Amino acid sequence: MTRRRHRRLPLTLAITLTAALALSACGDDSEPSSSGGPADTDAPVTISVSNKPTTEFPEQREAFERRLEEFTTDHPNITVDAQEVQWEADTFQAMLAGGTMPTVMQVPFTEIGALIGREQVADVTDQLDRTDALGRLSPTVMDVVTDDEDRVWGVPIAAYTMGLLYNRSLFEQAGLDPDAPPQTWEDVRAAATAIDAATDAQGFATMTLDNTGGWILTTMSYGFGSTLESDDGETATVDNPATEEVLEFYRSLRWDDDAMGSNFLLNYDDAVNAFASGQVGMFVQGADNYSNMVVNRGMPAEDFGVAPLPQTDDGIGTLGGGSVAVVNPRATPEEIAAALEWIDFYHFQKYTDETVAVANAEAAAADGLAVGAPELPVVDAELYAQYLDWIAGEVTVPRENFELYLSTVEELPLIPEPPVKAQELYATLDTVVQAVLTREDADIAQLLGDAQSTHQAAIDAG
Amino acid sequence: MTTTGVRALDTERSILSGMDRRVPRVRVAVTVVGALIVLALGVACAGPLFWLFKAATSTSSETLADPFGFWPSGIHWENLTEAWTSVRFGTYLLNTLIVCAGTWFFGLLIALTGGYGIAILRPAYARVVSAAVLATLFIPGVISLVALYLTVIDLPVLNVNLLNTFWGVWLPAATNAFNVLLVSRFLQSIPPALFDAARIDGAGAVRIFWSLVLPLSRPIIGVVSLLTVIGAYKDFLWPLLVLPDPDLQPISVALPRIESSTDLGVFMAALLISVVLPVLLFLGFQRQFLRAAGSAGAIKE
Amino acid sequence: MVVLDTEPRTAAPPGTARRPRTPVSWVRGGGLTTLLFFLPLLLSFGMFSWWPIVRSLVLSLQQTNFIVTEWVGLDNFQRVLADPLLGTAVWNTTVFTLIALVIGFPVPLLLAVFVAELRRTRALASVLVYLPVVIPPVVAVLLWKTFYRPDEAGLFNTVLGWAGLGPYEWLNSGAMVIPAIVVQATWASFGTAVIIYLAALMTIRTELYESAEIDGAGVVRRFWHVTLPQLRGILLIMLLLQLIGTFQVFTEPYIMTDGGPENRSLTLLLLIYRYAFVSGDFGRATALSLLLALALGVLSAVYLWATRRWSTS
């Protein structure tokens, strides 16, 4: 495991180390910095936090600033430096390398495993019980941030399951019932061809670049009945009948039905924008995308539809994901304490304080933001039900359009990302998906066989 | 440096002689081929820019439905204003100008002082320095991309992080061996007697630099300025790495980022705004541009 | 700056001093001033050019997460050579370079020769030829990306559609993606070569053409026996520079395809970028950079050695 690698650090190296080492390597290297003693929570402390909404989203920005001000009033000793940085695959490593990662940073579920493995985030276990809500997080999402030794390395702040997003208006134009979304993959194919034939939009789409192709292929494989790695993460199971069926499904939609458009080099933004602007009938994506599509990208609210990920008879569930707030590994115990205060305040106060919940919801509604959009609760069921009850009067989202999804979200099993080297696996699978979509003669069995050996080799390389 | 000089039109000749050109058959052939070449170049080189102008002033759906339709619903200037306001294009353009200005200043500073030292002052170590500078010309840039990046995020000795600062773009871009070479070559071509005379008059190194070298160097300053500014305007990979903060990004980094989230017409307008400045600059100073490009080639030889 | 001018009126010309050197005489002799003039160059090159080159050599033998660093010997190189994507990237880059050579080398030369024959329209032709060069590469790439749209709205598909052809998949097709990118890259850069050749053509002495003409050489033979030999020095250099340049192609595939489809446009620099800035594996990235630099160095040396007779005779 990479976690133990740095124990072998030779002394001679000391001269080449940068300030990073000097700052972080005080004491035994296996000791997380947070256990260095109780934090003095009244001393003045400055933390930086990520994901301040950019000026392109003025309402969110305003809401953020309002909350920030309230926080500073409540905690006069904590100074918060809010930054616009967000997690991005390309720049995150650089941020770590340059030591510029904010004290509190939001990262996707997919990243947290590797970060824990490399100890590039702080251990927050000892300070987690400081607040009410942080002690009542949903067990499903807590698994994501907990390692084998029960240490906790971050706070899940939002979670979602993957679902089938569909455009309700395109469904109507194609003579389909938007309130009865497809529940089998045969239904999906039929709906896709119908939309393709009846409208200017393409029936179905899938992303293929920046590891998103592999991500969606993995999700759909769950719906068809298989994971892509054994549970212990030691064996690649890429070459399995379920994944082959998914690719076969792509192949027929692409080459038999021609219902997937003409451009197959799509990254996340390309696909999401195409869907939001009504050029795509259906695609598999996070079910929490309501706000992203409707508020950020201008999709008409009544057009947005979301259904549970269709399952075959062998289907094992759907992939779950979300965001984790992590703390910079070089943070002092005081900074970690302040960081958790902020996380609790900004993301969880609404679950424990009715006034805050209602005020937040009212303000969000007034700013035209989404209130009550489908999501996977990060707190336990009781807290979440209570929260929904509090804000019932402020909901701005047509929840009746998501009936089927909302009634099944708790039932459909949530399968985590592949446990080992998920991003490498996705990168390998990107090319498989691209092959099936751009080459009519692509040999699916061969592609999967190659991907299987490539990924097994990657796992074995450690 | 090679200069073509200005030759009178009738004594100038290339493969064809003046005599050849008087043969009617040749004259017709030259005229026809010449016209074809200019026409082809017009379509191939100016055509895409013209189309860009058209697409930037049409609605997205028009461009998608009929890429060659000429403004079926009139000219839509609002794309340009939309690009300016909603995608913050003004900020990106300003950042680009800041990047250019800083690179230009530091590039000139390093090339002029260094070139002066190598070509005129010539201390004992000048040969070593000059060789070390020259050597970097022969080492492909790719070799140190990653190491340069790690250097910039944690400068040796100073322990400063230049990530998300313009310094991180300015200084590495200004460290350009080619510019130093251009300047020192140029200064070497100035008759040494000029400097000797100044020294005899009692001028020190600083005065010679300020009142003799700088005025004499005007042409080469022009060339180096053009090359650095254009280079800085065009650079992509390095600012992409060093300026992850959207507020600091120049247009070349911002454009690919906003591509898929921006309406096609507005995006084309953003592209158009990005080319206006360099194209106008080029059309205004075409002789200087072409001479800089040509002399860059002469040096390479 | 002026206060630093401590040179005495009788200072000997630099480089000719033969007096015994003491720190004081060194300063009085203008040594300090001279050093100050070298300072910007020494500092900037030291930090941003020479040191990173040394650092590359060190990094390639290390692994780091920026909190802890360790020496790993040649492990990074082994991991580069074991990566199945390396072969793909080498192959793609080679194909890219060869195609770029086939269309990118003769076209500018022939164009320059023709444009040199023009009289009234030569200036106009020069401006047109150089126009794409002044467009920022990112803008050119993004513009061409819309030209290459695989649906009927793509510019090329529209034009070919008039002739009843297509629609073609362009960047979506594993077979077409590299040629398509090469055409764009050539469009964006061929103007520089034309202008350089034009400048070189103007330096050819007219007597050479005249004597060839007297010998009865026709237009083609004049080109072959006078123009080409006179240009060979610049031609050789340009060819080498083009080789080195295209081997480091990055922006075009990064923006247009991100290496797809199926890694068919994954170039070496894109792979280095992925190692370093996506996977955070800086050691492996540096190792591949060094291997690429070494290959380019060997290529240049062999090239210069193989062509030395031709270029000097």
UniProtKB/TrEMBL annotation, chain A:
Signal peptide: 1-24
Gene3D superfamilies: Periplasmic binding protein-like II
Bias-annotated ranges (Low complexity): 26-38
Region (Disordered): 26-51
Keyword DNA damage: no
Pfam families assigned to the protein according to its UniProt record, in alphabetical order: SBP_bac_1
Keywords on record: Signal
Keyword set includes GTP-binding: no
Xref: PROSITE patterns: PROKAR_LIPOPROTEIN
Protein name: ABC transporter substrate-binding protein
Species name: Jiangella anatolica
Lineage: Bacteria, Bacillati, Actinomycetota, Actinomycetes, Jiangellales
Automatic annotation (TrEMBL), chain C:
Compartment list: Cell membrane
ABC transmembrane type-1 domain sequence ranges: 90-303
A Pfam family that the UniProt record links to this protein: BPD_transp_1
Topology relative to the membrane: Multi-pass membrane protein
Domain of life (superkingdom): Bacteria
Region of interest: Disordered: 1-20
Family: Belongs to the binding-protein-dependent transport system permease family.
Protein name: ABC transporter permease
Species in which this protein is naturally found: Jiangella anatolica
